[in-house]
């Protein structure tokens, strides 16, 4: 992972310059948003670097994990779109890629033959069981700068922010 320090320094300098010429800039909130996005981007790049040898990206793996963690190992593409925050077209691409690797299978729902059901395969379960354990040490290391209590507080605060944003953000895409 490349150094984030120059980006963090530039972020603070840039926001400070903007705040000098634009009255009312909510500096603290801008810093928080930009730092979250910068950090999330770095974590995502690191994660996708680990998935690349397997021809996967975050969306593919997240979808596979949703099936892996579901009660019966299956879901409809529509359910997965909502949980993975993906559009139907991209979910089709993801399902095609995972099916081509034999990590998931497609079938029709028994209660409605028009409905497609995606299910993790035994090969998909083996893949997840192989992929996850080596990812744990670097993940733990990324958060080693926090004490256990700080991690719990950070989690609570991020969850609180996520649920607050969920209530306040207008999801209507019209301008």
UniProtKB/TrEMBL annotation:
<keyword id="KW-0238">DNA-binding</keyword>
<dbReference type="GO" id="GO:0006950">
    <property type="term" value="P:response to stress"/>
</dbReference>
<dbReference type="InterPro" id="IPR000835">
    <property type="entry name" value="HTH_MarR-typ"/>
</dbReference>
<keyword id="KW-0804">Transcription</keyword>
<dbReference type="InterPro" id="IPR036388">
    <property type="entry name" value="WH-like_DNA-bd_sf"/>
</dbReference>
<dbReference type="InterPro" id="IPR039422">
    <property type="entry name" value="MarR/SlyA-like"/>
</dbReference>
<dbReference type="InterPro" id="IPR036390">
    <property type="entry name" value="WH_DNA-bd_sf"/>
</dbReference>
<dbReference type="Pfam" id="PF12802">
    <property type="entry name" value="MarR_2"/>
</dbReference>
<dbReference type="GO" id="GO:0003700">
    <property type="term" value="F:DNA-binding transcription factor activity"/>
</dbReference>
<keyword id="KW-0805">Transcription regulation</keyword>
<dbReference type="GO" id="GO:0003677">
    <property type="term" value="F:DNA binding"/>
</dbReference>
<dbReference type="InterPro" id="IPR023187">
    <property type="entry name" value="Tscrpt_reg_MarR-type_CS"/>
</dbReference>
<protein>
    <submittedName>
        <fullName>Uncharacterized protein</fullName>
    </submittedName>
</protein>
